[in-house]
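In the previous chapter we treated chains in isolation. Here, by contrast, the input contains two separate entities that must be folded as one system, with a combined length of 491 residues.
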Amino acid sequence: MAKVLTSRKENYAQWYNDLVIKAGLAENSAVRGSMVIKPYGYAIWEKMQAQLDRMFKETGHENAYFPLFIPKSFFSKEADHVEGFAKECAVVTHYRLRNSEDGKGVEVDPTAKLEEELIVRPTSETIIWNTYKNWIQSYRDLPILVNQWANVVRWEMRTRLFLRTAEFLWQEGHTAHATKQEAVDETRQMIDVYAQFAREHMALPVIQGHKSENERFAGALDTLAIEALMQDGKALQAGTSHFLGQNFAKAFDVTFANKEGKVDHVWATSWGVSTRLIGGLIMAHSDDNGLVLPPKLAPIQVVIVPIYRSEEQYEAVVAKGEEIRKQLLKHGISVKFDKRDTQKHGWKFAEYELKGVPVRLALGMRDIENGTIEVARRDTLKKEVMPMEGIDEKIVALLDEIQDNIYNKALDFRDKSIHYVDTWDEFKDTLENKGGFIMAHWDGTAETEQKIQEQTKATIRCIPFDNKQEEGKCILTGKPSKERVLFAKAY
RNA sequence: CGGGGUGUAGCACAGUCCGGUUAGUGUACCUGCUUUGGGAGCAGGGGGUCGCAGGUUCGAAUCCUGCCACCCCGACCA
């Protein structure tokens, strides 16, 4: 087969870039740092959205939409929050263009300067809490469980398709609660939703835990995250859920009368996942032949490729292929019958492998004569000739099997990549030579975490839930520690 | 934002150092014939403001100045 991708071994980053582009997921646009998500890539996002949206609704959330532009002054209200975002936002300063003097183009009309500049949202806490102020008077108005699907902009220095772009798509949930416990529970519930989505739909095992102070969201009291491991041994933060305490309620003066008639500030959470998930999906499962997509998120789950010579053969094979397509459709399988006469079957095989279609059916005269069909699975690259009879049931089962296999493969890799180390030398050696996750003791201070990061580039990905408590010594300072935390180099 | 690199056909590149035929190769595209259970072969054909704007020169893809974009490495981040 002709090689179209850089191999993972050769250059993992290049492999990723090649893959995103060659598989037709996305490409760089004419706008610095902003990508075009192409139909095939967007189809994956739509599948993710559909499932997540279902899960949000099941947990009682509703969708709404808040403005893209946020008055600059809103950002000065929550000090920690500003600190985290102030530096990297797009700012709207004018509202009109005019023809330039030389008549060759347009320029910003200097007389159309905005009284108050607008910030293109990097996240929506401020505008949302400004709005919630008007929605909430009594405990009877609570909780508010709202999610929005939106785009946000963060003026990133260095961008990579899906993983980090200046503009990206995401969902952000923003909830308001009467009690601290309710907000804490919500924060936890949503990280669990993300973890479940990652495992069951993305076939991506994740470790859930608390972020350290350094890695916490600006303005949050606690940040929960799901951390996934990529094939190159680097971690990817795949989703976060924040317990915001009363910080935003205080900043935006959102109060309510509780059952006792006393006025209190509202408790808040926010949580989000983005198109970055697509990057994680790619890097977790795909191989040197192209994408490997879990059936539950694959835009095309089954592709049928006809094999023929003459026109009569084409007719016969296409007729049979149509039958099979309809059979599969009845099971709710998304199936593409590629009966184009403009590409050879060999070309199609390679193409759908590159695009990560989980199952490929090849159908030729030989099959029609024998009542068989060739079934090829993308995850193992194995081919098998099966009886045509009852093929639909088999495909249904096969898709499940592929979903499980992809997950188990990723889980195996992840589990093999968690290293327990107790000394500084071991820590550095493991990072350099093995990569992956490292469970090690840490003295709990931000300074130590900072030093470790400066010296090794590794950060604390999370402090896992239900973490085993054990006495130990910090790998850097030797100070006492009660538990190991999860380190890794991260995207 | 700092360091490095690259902009030439849809894509990938050569040519640039040392200015001088009609700007070339692979691939993709079009036509025809042959082929056909893993990216087919042969023949013919079409496609270029050489990133943009100035400048030097008889003459610029090539030299000079400025700008823009993208990629890689760092600091920042989902």
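Residues 229 and 414 of chain A are 6 Å apart (CA to CA). Chain A has a mean pLDDT of 93. Compare these points with the single-chain example from earlier in the chapter.
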